[in-house]
Every structure is written in structure tokens, then in C-alpha cells.
Specification:
With 152 residues, this protein is of the alpha/beta class. It has one domain: Rossmann fold (3-Layer(aba) Sandwich). 41% of the residues lie in helices and 12% in strands. The chain has five helices and four strands. The protein has helices spanning 16-27, 40-52, 70-85, 103-112, 121-131, and strands spanning 7-10, 31-36, 57-61, 92-94. The chain has a four-stranded parallel beta sheet, with helices on both faces. Helix 1 (16-27) links the parallel strand 1 and strand 2. Helix 1 (16-27) runs parallel beside helix 2 and helix 1 crosses helix 5. The longest helix has 16 residues, at 70-85. The radius of gyration is 16 Å and the shape is globular.
Length: 152
């Protein structure tokens, strides 16, 4: 029996952490649906990078602040799954949208972290891809902190 390719839905996947997570997941063999709020061109560029890796990708608009739009969004996800991926379900949800950068917090965390810096998007993207992989299959029901050693 052929193993089914995983599909991830990455909210806020057009830039920053979400972009890195989407690209790392694609590099590990996962197809990706990514969302954007206002930066459609950036989201399409990420989707094209994913397709260049030989993976499938779809882009959907989502405003996390507009709760009334969620029902329509769910219908759009279902339609994309059928149209683009030939399936009814996805395997991985990465809720990343609406995470904001705070310069003061970054400075504080950089001084507190064992590595002397805050995590970059690629640091976190790689961790997310690992945790969504078969290699991490034994990790269940855990709180995983990827903080660069801030609590040592």
C-alpha cells in the first residue's frame, strides 16, 4: 500500500516564521496549504518555491481577526483539498498567523538566551518540520520549547 503524502495547513505562511515553517515542511516531503492576510504576492511566491521542490501548494486568504469569515474559509480549505490534492483532509495544522515581532522583547530574550540571540525563522521552521515528521512519531502530548536555552 502506497503511503499517503501529508498535507499541512500553515496559517500566516507568506512570510517570517510561517514562510520558514511552510518551506521546511515542503523540504521534508509535505504538501502545503498556506494562508495570508494581505500579502497575496508574497504567499504566491512561497507557494511557487514549494512547487519548485516538487511539492503541491495552495494559497488562501485568511483574516484571523474576522471570526465571521471562518465558515467560508473552512469551505475554501475543503474545496482546495479536493481540487488541488484530491483529498478531504489534511494532517498538520500550524497555527502561526497573527504572531507579531516585538523589538523590546527580542532584546530582553537575546540577553537571557544561552545562545545569546533569539530564534530566527529558520530555527523554528526546522523544529516544526522535525516535530511533524515520522522521526518524531514517539513524541506525543508534550510541550516542546524551542527557545535557544532561555530557561537553563
Amino acid at each position: 500500500m502506497e503511503k499517503q503524502i501529508k498535507i499541512a495547513l500553515v496559517t500566516g505562511g507568506s512570510r517570517g516564521l510561517g514562510k520558514s515553517m511552510a518551506l521546511h515542511l515542503a523540504q521534508s516531503g509535505v504538501d502545503v496549504i498556506l494562508t495570508y492576510n494581505t500579502k497575496k504576492a508574497e504567499a504566491e511566491a512561497v507557494a511557487e518555491e514549494i512547487r519548485q521542490m516538487g511539492r503541491k501548494a495552495a494559497v488562501l486568504q485568511l483574516d484571523m481577526a474576522n471570526l465571521r469569515a471562518f465558515d467560508a474559509f473552512i469551505e475554501q480549505v475543503a474545496a482546495q483539498l479536493r481540487l488541488e490534492f484530491g483529498r478531504d483532509t489534511f494532517n498538520i495544522l500550524v497555527n502561526n498567523a497573527a504572531i507579531r515581532s516585538n523589538p523590546q522583547m527580542k532584546s530582553f530574550l537575546s540577553n537571557a538566551a544561552a545562545l545569546g540571540r533569539v530564534g530566527e525563522a529558520d530555527d523554528i521552521g526546522g523544529v516544526v518540520a522535525l516535530l511533524c515528521s515520522e522521526q518524531a512519531g514517539w513524541i506525543n502530548g508534550q510541550r516542546i520549547e524551542a527557545s535557544g536555552g532561555i530557561n537553563l
